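Archive transcription. Copying these from loose printouts into the bound notebook so they stop getting lost. Printout 1 of 2:
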Amino acid sequence: MEGRVMDAGAAGDHRRLKAAVYASACTVAGMAPHWLPASQSFWPAIVLAALLGGYSIRTVLLESLRNRSDLQQVSTSVDPPSAWPAVDVVVAARDEQAVITRLIEHLAELRYPAAQLRLWVVDDGSSDRTPELLAQLQQCFAQLQVVRREADAGGGKSGALNLVLQQLQGRWMLVLDADAQLQSDTLERLIPVAERGGWAAVQLRKAVANSDVNLLTRAQAMEMALDAVIQQGRLAVGGVAELRGNGQLLRRDALIASGGFNEATVTDDLDLSFRLLVHGHGIGVQWDPPVREEAVLTLAALLRQRQRWAEGGLQRFFDYGSALVSKRLSGAQQLDLLCFFLLQYAMPMLAAADLLGALVTRTLPCIWPLSIVALGLSGLAIVSGCLRPSEGPPLPRMTPLAMGLGIVYLVHWFVVIPWVTLRMALLPKRLVWAKTLHLGEIGDDEPDLAAPA
């Protein structure tokens, strides 16, 4: 897998420069309307709101609501392939004593030809009882293979996955987090979809298993439904779908041809999405069956997690920017990426700069038409996602109050994105791969994960 890893120091240097240029450009663009005549100061935001709002309506609401393609919504009965391909289910685990036993027990219940299925766990330098539990599980499950790395091996989750990738022989690699829970028929339904669609990767919808714990977990459940709706909508209009780490099915030959997992990024899934894209490999999205996972329980944990997601998201645009504007991508893909970047990363930066400009010039903020359109459409997409028929944990019941909660919750990105961008621009980067704590307290009383009859 030659060239799979860029030097962390060099990567940090060029990302810091690009982040500084990007932050400066957003600051100028966000403050500039305050020096225009009052009658013209709102026009930049109105024009952007019309353009991005129109694209969002087409992508998120119209195309995704049609939902007629087998690639977007797959029934519970899928024609099996003439010969089932070999599948390796892979988990990179560090200090997962709370969930590792439940995970392996559930994976052992997957319905798939036994000769074509292998389970792999990379014990990534665990310091708790994870190694001991894995040794016990190996005695019970013959198909379980355990690979161990030292805690200081480097490369984070990407390093762990690259290590096991060298030993895999299957056509498909299903990557899971340690808190993942799958329905027993997941592979029987997912593999035919991937084979029939010609995808290099397929991402399962992520469903929050503990959405009823508090308002924060409920909001995260709404966000995951929103994300799946957006992903399917982008794909339906010829745009780009992305991997989400947990529940991602990867075709091994495409993964290797794209250089494997990047060990110089903090989000292996987002980086790999662009690696596959620039090498011409398509990613599909599957609404059902979902992969269940735990949502974080506190605001502090959420902000730590989202800062990592924001940093990894920006890193990939900085790293692959030249390829994204080349002829490797279609016009529809480039338009999709431009609109997505403006909405996800540029709009929060413009809003922050707009507030700064308002304070400096003692005028009213100018960017609010764009923000209102974006948040309003996001609220409608939340409703669209949560009203869909779905397997797995029940999605939050939609009421005006629930929709309002979802919209208010999304405002945290208006804080996270500017903070992370400035930090990337001003501070030297030291790569730190942080893991989300899994408690394993939700879902233990749900033994039947099979699809409903």
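Printout 2 of 2:
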Amino acid sequence: MNKEAVILIPCYNPDEKIMDNFIKELGKKYQNIVLIDDGCSKEHEAYFKKLEKKYPIVKHYKNYGKGRGIKNGLNFILNNYPDCKAIITADCDGQHSIKDITKIYEETINNPNSLILGTRNFESENVPFKSRYGNKITRNIFKIFVGLTISDTQTGLRGMSQKVAEAMLSISGERYEYETNVLIGCKTEDIPIVEVPIKTIYIEENRTSHFNPIKDSIMIYKLFIKYIIVALSSFFIDIFLFSLFLIAYNKLGILYPIIAATVTARTLSSAYNYFINAKLVFKKMNKWSIVKYFILVFVQMWVSAFAVSWICKVIPLNPVALKIIVDTFIFIVNFIIQREFIFNKK
């Protein structure tokens, strides 16, 4: 009987037959199992009363979401199981075999500073459409916007040490977006991610799953949407200020008006961009991030200014229109640098 691991299972209106078989098999190998009753309906009250005779249950008065359930469960475990060496989260819908849970446990023991993911093969014929669709979109979004290549972003089978679990408590998110935010948090906090292949199991087309690929995808991509909104607002502020200062500097007869307008507009718009990104998007601000950010702004500002000035001499184009084209390419480079260097703890 394994006493070093604690298995955390968040539950919301589970199929009692499926869950009962899972808990019975799990209990043969693992002594410590913690359940989250995430506001389940009254029809499940008798079932959870039966379970609480053997296992602790963290009960929510109403459905708060999987993310809140996992965080409350981790908090409960850290308070009540100080000697545990591994915390394993598993779903209640029968998707995870005991053998695979053991694989995650062993990998967690071997990698105490990492987050361990049990990753499924989504090319299997038994994978339901909404699961295949949801994972492919999120996987590609992660690769493009976060810079992480993860084969199964939605897996609920995860392992972590107490040290990693502590870091998970401060990550935002109440529902399914929390599990995605955890992966993003690992990137920003320099927590390695280890993937472990597991068996792909779907019972009755995964009918017990409460994941909605449309609704929950919007929640998952909220971080990316915020970044794009901030970037676009900064871009329009920059273009607007550039246009105003270009007119003013031309009237004043200032030498190199394009360069002067670029410097003034970029200084103001970049200050706005940094503070909004630091507060609302990446949520990381310190003296080094701001120094690195404005070094980046300085370099890209002069690249933009000289590129627009040089191209205007070669090709007779409107400077404002040309700046939009040049800064579009700079925007792509800027996103990668901010993601990998400016707001990266490492």
